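Please, structure for the following, as tokens.
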Amino acid sequence: MGVLKRFEQRLEGLVNGTFAKVFKSEVQPVEIAGALQRECDNNAQIWNRERTVVPNDFIVELSAPDYERLSPYSGQLGDELAGLVRDYAKQQRYTFMGPIKVHLERADDLDTGLYRVRSRTLASSTSQPQPHAGNPPQPHQPQGQGGGYGYPQGPPAGAPPMPSAPPPGGAGHRPPAGGGRPPAAGGTQVRRWIEINGNRHQISRPTLVLGRSTDADVRIDDPGVSRRHCEIRTGTPSTIQDLGSTNGIVVDGQHTTRATLRDGSRIVVGSTTIVYRQAEG
């Protein structure tokens, strides 16, 4: 069972207790949980051939209405989210420089239902990566879901210099979860991402499934979206494929089951608009 699914089930067990009001918020805890996972992936740094360090201090910025709803439960929710990050890091063989903490903050520039995730690496007194209990060290938008406005990442003050990452395929190389970005012709890399309601989601794997299910790569909380609605396939060119959804997809104004994507393509699923982006470098 996936880490996100286990987290969701733990929260469901608390719905009739202190978390009952949390689920009335426009921002759902499971969406924040998915954003924290992606924040780890997007900011993972190779420390040496056996250790990949990820942030351990996270700040979730919420709109004023969402913050007012969630802040009374910030301690318990923060602990649950920190536990999810710990479980996910163990699964991905990531390590931390110090204890994991998740904080909620109010951001008056955000509308209800939108949020940002920021992260940083804070060292413990030892200034050495801390492996997870039971997991020996082994050789990752933007707003909201899928990548954060991050503090500058790098070795904390007092830590030994971080060696340069080995070349792809070399000893100790461990790409971000889901794979690395495919190189474009001529050796340049093509960065790909999608934007949903102002939130950026990096595309760092050959396929990206969008849907309402917690098992989807990008979860879209829209009743008009199927559990596994469609799939973006990276390539030259990138394409989008309907996965047998109930309401289908519209790409650049055309109902279709499959379409080629270009920078700026607009995809509509249910009542949600997705903008596909790509750029070299």
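The CA atoms of residues 212 and 221 lie 6 Å apart. The longest strand covers residues 272-280.
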